[in-house]
Design brief:
- Helices cover 32% and strands 15% of the residues.
- With 330 residues, it is α/β, with parallel strands linked by helices.
- The chain has 2 domains: 138 residues, Glycogen Phosphorylase B (Rossmann fold, 3-Layer(aba) Sandwich); 158 residues, Glycogen Phosphorylase B (Rossmann fold, 3-Layer(aba) Sandwich), CATH 3.40.50.2000.
- The longest helix is centred in the first third of the chain and has 14 residues.
Amino acid sequence: MIKEISDLKKILIIRLSSIGDVLLTTPLIRSIKKQNPNIQIDFVVKSEFFELLKNNPHLTNIYSYSKESTKKKELLNSLKANKYELVIDLQNNNRSREIVYKLDRKTFQFGKNSLKRFLLVHFKINRLKKAPLIPVRYAKAAGIKLDDEGLEIFTDNIADSRLELNEKYIGLCPGAKHFTKRWPKEYFIDLGKMLETSGYKVALFGSADESETIKEIEKQLGNPLNLCNDSILQTAANIKMCKAIYTNDSGSMHLSCAVDVPVIAFFGSTVKELGFYPYKNQNVVLEIEALPCRPCTHIGRNSCPLKHFKCMKEIKPELAFNSLKRLHLS
């Protein structure tokens, strides 16, 4: 029988990727630390997402995961030396299970609801109507009661010097890994023009991989700020300067929530029941609920399987612009 969290001295949390999934672990980390201020909480994450947790004051050690055999062996040796009393595996895939197996410690694993998810996506049989959001499910896997606060990220970065304190910035985040999660680029352009006409200053966010799309949008607008970069912490600092963020169902949505900036989120091929909704943050979610083909995936697809892409195309720029009125902006 595992001790209560309040009695433990060392635990390890594993969540290797990605931006949103890692940020969604932060309420759990904070809640554990509140219940046991003296506990050592270590975390394993892929190196490209290390920044998300870099300055988290609730963590003692953050370990970077690599598939390269020598580095993986070094990681396992370091983890074994810590002699954890409990491992919380929130990834629950072959890579994380390999770590769990090698450590041979009492482990709590995240339940993915794979069968229910399969039934919803492929047969539209919804057994997830009452499913809580992912942070709550993470906490349930660990046997922890969450506090009432949201996601968090700790950045000591200074906002881009082009961002002025008294300007009314609205951020546009057009990127997402998968096509069916992306609101059309042309719609972002139309929305940007409406925002500029209404006196807002548009800020464009994205990674270096999304820079071409950002540049295409930039060329069509009056005088937007292109804040593309590959630093998660710098992007977080820049987003904090905005009144609100328009974003797809992506890491940018969760990053905006983590810095407590209101979001207007476009949901196309995915739905709330899958668990990845804005968590404890002011938000408006725009989606075409009546479409019988939604959801067509739980992570995103490279194309619309029915070729019409109505789930995104029917969310018009005018609707997105008018949704700004539904937020209580400072």
